[in-house]
Amino acid sequence: MARACAFAKLQSAPKFSVRHRNRCKVCGRARGYYRKFELCRVCLRVYALRGDVPGVIKASW
């Protein structure tokens, strides 16, 4: 229940525009955010390994 409440709170606009913080669309994490994918580093890795993010492959050299 607390998780749903937290997501609802994130959807509302901040009182001041400088308080805006980019957050992951899946888990709401604010740190390690990738603008291109709108995901945090943790969720990006999970989705990329599953093949859900087109054009992303695991590096090997």
Describe this structure in words.
The structure is a single chain. By secondary structure, this protein is mainly alpha-helical. It has a domain at 23-61: Ribosomal Protein S14/S29 (30s Ribosomal Protein S14, Chain N), CATH 4.10.830.10. Helix content is 33%, strand content 7%. The protein is built from 2 helices and 2 strands. It has a two-stranded antiparallel sheet. A hairpin with a 4-residue loop joins strand 1 and strand 2 (39-40). The N and C termini lie far apart (45 Å). The mean pLDDT is 86.
List the helices and strands and how they pair.
Blueprint: H1 2-11, E1 33-34, E2 39-40, H2 41-50
Antiparallel strand pairs: 1-2
Report the C-alpha radius of gyration, rounded. Answer: 14 Å
Percent range of helical residues: 25-40%
Distance between the termini: 45 Å
The major sheet is characterized as: 2 strands, antiparallel
- In DSSP terms (H or I, runs of 4 or more residues), the helix count works out at 2
Mean pLDDT: 86
Number of strands: 2
Question: What gross morphology would you assign?
Answer: elongated
Regions with little confidence, pLDDT below 50 for 5+ residues? none
Q: What name goes with the CATH superfamily of the domain at 23-61? A: Ribosomal Protein S14/S29
CATH class of the domain at 23-61: Few Secondary Structures
Just name the CATH architecture of the domain at 23-61: Irregular
The chain-level structural class is mainly alpha
Kindly estimate the percentage of residues that lie in beta strands according to DSSP.
Answer: 5-15%
CATH topology of the domain at 23-61: 30s Ribosomal Protein S14, Chain N
Oligomer: single chain
Listing every helix as H and every strand as E from the N terminus to the C terminus, the arrangement reads HEEH
Strands of the widest sheet, in order across it, are 1-2
